[in-house]
Amino acid sequence: MKKTEKRSLNKQIQFNGLQRTTLILFTLLIALCLFFTLDLVLGSVNIPLEETFSVLFGNIPLNDPSNIIIMDLRLPRALAAAFGGAALAVAGLLMQTLFRNPLAGPFILGISSGASLGVAIVILLFGGVSATTLPQMLRAFGFLGSATVAMAAFIGSSAVLMIVLFVSRKIESNVTILILGLMFGYITNSLVTILIHFSDPEKVKAFSEWTFGTFDIRWAEVSILVPVIILALIFSFLLTKPLNALLLGEEYATSMGMNFNRTRSYLIVITALLAGVVTAFCGPITFLGVAVPHLCRGIFVTADHRILVPGCTLLGASLALFADMIAHLPGSSLTLPLSSVTSMLGAPVIIWVILYGNKIGRGVSV
Amino acid sequence: MKEVPLISTSELSIGYKHRNKEPTIVSKNLNLSLMPGELVCLIGPNGAGKSTLIRTLIGMQSCISGDIHLAGKLLNDFNAIEKARVLSVVLTSQISVSHFKASDIVALGRYPYTGWSGTLSEKDKEMVSYSLTAVGASELSSRYVSELSDGEKQKVMIARGLAQDPSVLVLDEPTAFLDLPHKIEIMRILKSLSRHPGRAVLLSIHDLDIAMRTADKIWLFNKHGDFYSGAPEDLILKGVFGSAFEMGGVHFDKKKGTFIISPEKKGTVSLIGGNNTEFIWTSHALERAGYNICTDTNTDITIEIQDRKGDTCWQYMDNTCEHDFFSIGDMIQFLCKGHKNSVDQQRSSDELMYLEFGKRTFPEVQRTW
């Protein structure tokens, strides 16, 4: 009798845990919808909610100013923010688990630096002279141009990640790998600096705009960004089981029947896709990739990737939309660099989680 | 019907391969077998090759030459999932995962049985709770790993290994971080696991004493990489323990089955009186201080255990003086000071320290005195 009692109690606990997780995921989904809508409504010109919905459902003439603002500017921007934020958060999660390092993230291991080297080569060496800003330049290239920049960023980011991982096979210590990632970052950054030094000021301005980070991209870029991210997110969700096994470390995971090298290659490719494509179009957006996974672990109080992958997707998307909203300073025509907004908003949150999170959530660990 | 060994090796050489050099061979010509129902302890001094053998047997390191069979099939013919269903391991390295409950860790052991998402079926859930119960950790199931003590963590990791439903459970120093009661508890759990039909447990361990009390069989490496296998008692009688571990100042006591630190010999003491327990512990203390014990009274020093109105008293007697002590500690302290005469004893400790200092620093001065 005691046993059955215990079992029913266990079931209750499990059920409550499941209920709680579902509730949080649902709340995050609502937050995502809310921020997405707000991102469309707020801006230099505030468009009332009813009008926004009328535009979205096609009830407003195409040449109406609000239609142009929403359909050509804000909707692609909001989509880029939502998918970009989700991509960076999940990429960070994958890296933290693979390296078993709480400080890992797309930016810290030099992946973004690799991407920026690729982009710098394309923009600074081969970019059109007449274009003065990145969107203009991309439009000058047309669809092919966007694809070229994306490819350059992707190749740059995967190259750095491959080197880091190749070296990490021979090194046990995670701290060493982290330092190596930083060193590769320095090398690529110094190459970028050399390129900048010998480039035309216009091209440099286009490139430095890219480095500030922005979700202000056009449909041509969104049409590449969104499908790639959706695909990579699906693949990362398919890898939740090996990711969970990796929490115990490479040796345990292997002993339980996981093919480590194959899983690692998958994780590299997915991360390079996610981080690479976002960095290509939106620039190196700091902070989201490192912080969101920690926030998620704290909120859901779990390390289970079956919860963390969707959790990071929703939370990353919401936070990116929120940051984008702030960056556009509603009611004014000014915009702030996106990366500075994400860091300024996010760092205090993480500090709060570290210091005042609940007992399990306290401290940052993978 | 002849039983098939769960692990067997033929002419196995273990060691490390190098890129351009001859491999470093740790041990060679190993022909060992692990039978179902056995608890085998692998012991040997540090650096003798325990970890290398364990890592080779579980396929984490390739062997130099020879064959390893797992449940009658060549180890290299297994794919990763098949192997994980036959063999599970518990490693020395501490896991460092937080935000994960004990039951989540154990559930990971179902890895080779679950589908792509790792969702547990009813059978998997049963196996998880069975594993936790089998190691006596069912009450830990909903606790977070970061809150567990080392001993509790180790139990959870053993439960995780058990959840793989293996025929062979291999553990690399499962008792390394634990205090004595927890060491014994873990060994008791492992012993009970090895009694499950068709299962065997192999572990490496540092603690010789515990190994000899629990193991059905001992695999022993000596410091030259020679390998011995047998029941603990057989190995004691063969005298291989002594040769495996012996070094300066330590020797193996065949009668007691433990290693003894050999102190410098100071003399013989005759010990008389006292009840049985008092006698045993007094003689332990005297042996520790370097004195042999005998029961005749023809020695320089005699110690008599007396009962003084309910208090135990140790009476020290030699040719020059007599002393009463009311604890073994005081008596040993007195003996270690080279039983100075009673005048010395009455001097203040400051004076004694001064004397010691003088002796050490100014030996020639002292001699001229």
Written overview of the protein:
The complex is a heterodimer of chains A (366) and B (369). Chain A is mainly α. Chain A is built from 14 helices and no strands. Helix content of chain A is 77%, strand content 0%. Chain A is globular. Chain B has 2 domains: 7-258, P-loop containing nucleotide triphosphate hydrolases (Rossmann fold, 3-Layer(aba) Sandwich), CATH 3.40.50.300; 267-368, Rossmann fold, CATH 3.40.50. A 6-stranded mixed sheet of chain B has the order 7-8-9-4-10-11, sandwiched between helices. In chain B, strands 1, 2, 3, 5 and 6 form a 5-stranded antiparallel sheet that branches. Chain B has a 5-stranded mixed sheet with strand order 15-14-16-17-18, with helices on one face. In chain B, helix 3 runs parallel beside helix 5 (150-163). Chain B starts with 6 loop residues before the first strand and ends with a helix. The model of chain B is unreliable at 340-369 (pLDDT under 50). Classes of the chains: A mainly alpha (366), B alpha/beta (369). The interface between A and B is medium-sized, with 33 and 37 residues.
How are the secondary structure elements laid out?
The complex is a heterodimer of chains A (366) and B (369).
Chain A: H1 2-41, H2 49-56, H3 65-99, H4 111-126, H5 134-168, H6 174-197, H7 201-212, H8 219-238, H9 240-246, H10 250-255, H11 260-282, H12 288-300, H13 305-327, H14 338-356
Helix pairs in contact in A: 1-3, 1-13, 2-3, 3-8, 3-11, 3-12, 3-13, 4-5, 4-6, 4-7, 4-11, 5-6, 5-11, 8-11, 12-13, 12-14, 13-14
Chain B: E1 7-16, E2 24-30, E3 33-34, E4 39-43, H1 50-57, E5 65-70, E6 73-74, H2 80-86, E7 87-90, H3 102-108, H4 122-134, H5 150-163, E8 168-172, H6 180-194, E9 200-204, H7 208-214, E10 217-221, E11 227-230, H8 232-238, H9 240-245, E12 250-253, E13 258-261, E14 267-273, H10 276-288, E15 291-294, E16 301-308, E17 311-317, E18 322-325, H11 328-336, H12 342-346, H13 349-361, H14 363-368
Parallel strand pairs in B: 4-9, 4-10, 7-8, 8-9, 14-15, 14-16
Antiparallel strand pairs in B: 1-2, 1-3, 1-5, 5-6, 10-11, 12-13, 16-17, 17-18
Helix pairs in contact in B: 3-5, 4-5
